[in-house]
Design brief:
The protein has two domains: about 270 residues, Aldehyde Dehydrogenase, Chain A, domain 1 (3-Layer(aba) Sandwich); about 180 residues, Aldehyde Dehydrogenase, Chain A, domain 2, CATH 3.40.309.10. Helices cover about 40% and strands about 20% of the residues. It is globular. The strands form six sheets. A seven-stranded mixed sheet has the order 14-15-16-13-12-18-19, sandwiched between helices. A six-stranded mixed sheet has the order 9-8-7-10-11-21, with helices on both faces. α6 packs antiparallel against α8. β8, α11 and β9 form a beta-alpha-beta unit. Bound molecules: nicotinamide-adenine-dinucleotide. Nicotinamide-adenine-dinucleotide binds next to α12 and α13. Keywords: NAD, Oxidoreductase. Its EC number is 1.2.1.27. Belongs to the aldehyde dehydrogenase family. One of its GO terms (molecular function) is methylmalonate-semialdehyde dehydrogenase (acylating, NAD) activity.
Length: about 550
Amino acid sequence: MTISLARASRATGLPRGLLARQVTTSTDRRTRKPLIDLKPEIREKAELLSSSWKGTNASGGNTKNYIGGEFVESKADKWIDVLDPSTQTLLTKVPETTSAEFDAAVDAASTAYASWRKTSVLTRQRFAMELQHQIRKHSDAIATSIVLEQGKTMADAQGDVLRGLQVVETACAITSTLMGDKIEVSKDMDTETRRLPLGVCASIAPFNFPAMIPLWTIPMATVTGNTLILKPSERDPGAAMIIAELCERAGLPPGVVNIVHGTVPTVNAVCDHPDIRAISFVGGNRAGQHIYERGTKNGKRVQANLGAKNHAVIMPDANKNLALNSIIGAAFGAAGQRCMAISVAILVGEAKQWLPELVERAKKLNVNGGFEKGADLGPLISPAAKQRVTGLIASAESEGGRILLDGRHISIPDYPDGNFVGPTVIEAATSMTCYKEEIFGPVLVVLEADTLDDALSVINSNPYGNGTAIFTQSGATARKFEHEVEVGQIGINVPIPVPLPMFSWSGNKGSFLGDISFYGKNGINFYTQNKTITSLWKAEDALGSKASVDMPTMR
Ligand code: NAD
């Protein structure tokens, strides 16, 4: 079976020419397989998930919506297959939520808001504390669901859960962080600020962090007194469903968090529903720009984290071992499907000589199914993603780049049908497609620069501003880099400088749309609106005070 180049081009966003050699090869792999084809020990994990959790199913059944505290079967007439990216086994089907179901979710969130907003901050803090306990207790189940549906390795999936858990833990400090201000502005007159919730908020998540991204928004929205509609990625909804059940176990009242599944129609319903006050989006540029425009046009507050191209600069004075290992981990970990992956290395001056060693170290990475012991990276999310990535590698070849390590034809004996691409290193130039496009695969583009200024100029000319890193042993060089680079998240000898959630996400330029970013202080600002109250209570009017008979002086 073949799919047309036009269809593949639409699905992957790549020109037909780039796809010509790719399309026919992987379409057979799209045939979904029954659960029985999974290795017995993995099938057992899938079946255990299905029998242990109310909303998710990993053995071929349907994923439910979570509306008003109930896990409900959708009446959708359109369902999306979720396939294990290592084997193409059908794990679950995700509904394209109907309009009636979507409206029911918003109604449940509106009803719950009326009472949830009035709960004390201590009640909401208690929920966050219980949730952190529940997630810690069940992190293996969440991580297992992630490995099955998303394909990343078990250790990496545990990291996905942990980075989300850290937001829950920070949200436990809401009793301090939600405090407003108060000052006596004139005699007996006070002005105070109260930070109040917005109402029903929505969160739209990408496939690459199925636990972490929902956990960027669930705790922050709820501890500030809002209610939430979450739309997980239709490609890996399981982690969000387990988290929903953990919210319930942590004592969250029905309707405070609701989950609806689907694709563009469900997202558009989020953008258009008049009762939704704010939207958090994390994902690619196309969807993000659409949601930002449609949501803000409808008067909603929108924060949108988008795509990225993250550069690491390796100075000749760097600690070579640290620099090379850091770059390899950040470029190829999670098969490059991280928005903060290092996708470009700029070797400055004599650091150019380290390129062969970089390639040698990358070759040693173990590509395998995510549950396999010793696996360093797993498959890409879908056959379409694999086509897109291999197409971009091919584009480098035809545009004059040098492929120093080619992961396109890797074969994994136990997983012949997986969407695997091995670590790939391409010596390229900034004019090439493989540099200009976000690849979102295990591909490292290597550039050379004579000086730090040249490297800075490359980075600052790039439209994205999510993350960057420098490897050097000179404090002065690091300081110059930090001051002059126009990127929002900077690592100095740190490859993936995602700030912990006591800080806020700070990707910028083309990697962010909106004014107020995720979690930390900004997260609280995003989910609250201020009320200022100015009150006058004259002390002289206190009961028992005597009338003044002095000449009024108006002071
Ligand atoms: P995606 O944009 O395809 O999907 C994200 C969400 O948007 C999903 O829930 C999906 O259903 C919805 N969606 C997809 N296309 C849509 C459309 N045309 N209209 C409306 N909604 C649509 O992203 P993805 O492939 O799931 O995730 C990978 C992308 O996300 C990469 O570009 C990556 O850089 C980015 N990302 C960014 C960050 C960040 O913090 N900057 C974090 C993670 C991922």
